[in-house]
Design a protein that fits this description.
Elements (H helix, E strand, L loop, with lengths): L3 H4 L8 E9 L1 H4 L9 H16 L3 E6 L2 H9 L8 H25 L3 E7 L2 H4 L1 H16 L2 E7 L13 H11 L2 E8 L19 E2 L20 H13 L3 E6 L7 H4 L6 E3 L8 H7 L6 E5 L1 H6 L6 E2 L3 E5 L7 E5 L5 E6 L4 H9 L5 H5 L6 E3 L4 E3 L11 H10 L3
Parallel strand pairs: 1-2, 1-5, 2-4, 3-4, 5-7, 6-8, 9-12
Antiparallel strand pairs: 7-8, 9-11, 10-14, 12-13, 13-15
Amino acid sequence: MPDDSFQGHTEDFVSKDKRVVVKIGSQLLANSDRLTPRFAFMQRLLDDVARLRDDGYDVILCSSGAVALGLKVVGSRPEDAGISDKQAAAACGMPVLLNAYKQIGHEFDLEIAQVLLTLGDFEDHRRFLNTRNTVNRLLKSHIVPIVNENDSITTEEIRVGDNDRLAAKIAQMVNAQHFIILTGVDGLYDRDPAEPGAKLVEEVHDVNQYLEAASGKSTLGTGGMLTKLQAANMAQNAGCTAYIANGEADHPLSSVLDGTRKCTVCVSHSEPNSLWETWLADRLQMAGSLVLTREAAARLGEDVPIHRRDVVSMDGEFTRGDVLHIYDQSGKELARGLSDFTSEETRVMTNNQDLPADQLLGYKTHAELIRPENLVVLEDRHMTWGAPQAVMSSARTSGGD
């Protein structure tokens, strides 16, 4: 069943009409040549944060920049830095970044707090809620949270990987109404903005229509327009409007919210998912996957569990409580759901379907891999993930039922 802590404290789950999450790209915060803080931009940003706060808004900043600002200290350049260089740079750059925020924030009577997160803080639902409680407590005291991934301790295998999607998870977590992605361009274009005739897309309802146009990434950052569309889609699913806008403006936030300058607006869905459904559906990494028989795939959404007999093949190493991606035999992703078993237990049960599950595992069980209340069937509005090659090869070999 959904965790009880998702069900309680319902007053905290009401949409916050004046809550804004802002993601700031590295190229806005760090000078690309000198790798030093861009104080003029940060002053304009925090001046606008103070304006919004005076208007009754809660503002959360999801800030890149720590790695870029620390590279100069460790003697590396963005184009040739390895993972250990970036980890060391993050450790050196974070104090530089926070000190800049702190010093400039004092001018506008803003109190600043640092919140460093890892992938597990989003993918584990109890840690997700603990993080949410911390952020909400800071906002209650009128403190501006500065959120970033803890790059000094994460490796490629356990990283969120980009601050665009990290920021979108924060927007989901706090039920924000607005999610602003500040970058170095005016928004999403229908093709490479350097090409003649490229046009700004001013309003987006379905981000999937623009995936081909979203390619490339900045020198300093880890994400490009694709990750921004992924992040916008995550916000939309939670009933949050996302904006992709150029950060180089006198009032980079308020001018977006009041519609006085051009940007791309990704309109929120009129019927958003619940917090529980959003947490299940919008993943940052794939823990594991299952391919279902045709019959089982056709039953999804009928309030029935996924049994071991429904599985054609599986992939990944996961634990009980991890979210699995569910595919049909053609490789189309259908759903995502919370596993009731570890990958080892699942593999033993699916590979020995003629033997009782109780006998295989040593305890009484109905062998329901995913219960219906812990399953979200994906809709057209969700961005799907391609099936792992290993699991699809296994599905084609077995043929299914």
